[in-house]
């Protein structure tokens, strides 16, 4: 896939327990029925590590998301 082609992002955010993942999974199902390429990325696990990487100034979640984005774009 041409990585210069614009991509759209739907960000589902909110407090804990408001069913964000449920909404994201349902949106993914709707897109699948319409043959729309998509990826659901559950961000909660992007920086789960010990010792906590952010305490040393490492933006692990941001780095992980950037790597995933790049990989998904290459895959099309």
Share of residues in helices = 25-40%
Low-confidence stretches: none
Treating each run of at least 4 consecutive H or I residues as one helix, how many helices? 2
Which structural category do the helix and sheet elements fall into? mainly alpha
What is the number of strand segments? 0
Q: What are the secondary-structure elements, in order, as H or E?
A: HH
Average residue-wise pLDDT: 86
Largest sheet: none
* Global shape: flat
Q: In percent, how much strand structure appears in the residues? A: under 5%
Number of domains: 1
Query: What is the terminal separation in angstroms?
Result: 5 Å
Global Rg: 15 Å
List the helices and strands and how they pair.
Blueprint: H1 20-33, H2 60-75
In short:
This protein is 39% helix and 0% strand.
Using brief descriptors, characterize the structure shown.
76 residues; mainly alpha
Give an account of the 3D structure:
By secondary structure, the chain is mainly α. The chain has one domain. The chain is 39% helix and 0% strand. It has 2 helices and no strands.
């Amino acid at each position: 896939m041409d990585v210069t082609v614009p991509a759209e992002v739907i960000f589902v955010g909110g407090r804990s327990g408001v069913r964000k993942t449920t909404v994201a999974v349902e949106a993914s199902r709707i897109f699948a029925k319409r043959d729309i390429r998509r990826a659901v990325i559950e961000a909660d696990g992007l920086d789960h590590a010990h010792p906590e990487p952010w305490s040393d100034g490492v933006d692990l979640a941001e780095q992980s998301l950037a790597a995933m984005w790049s990989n998904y774009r290459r895959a099309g």
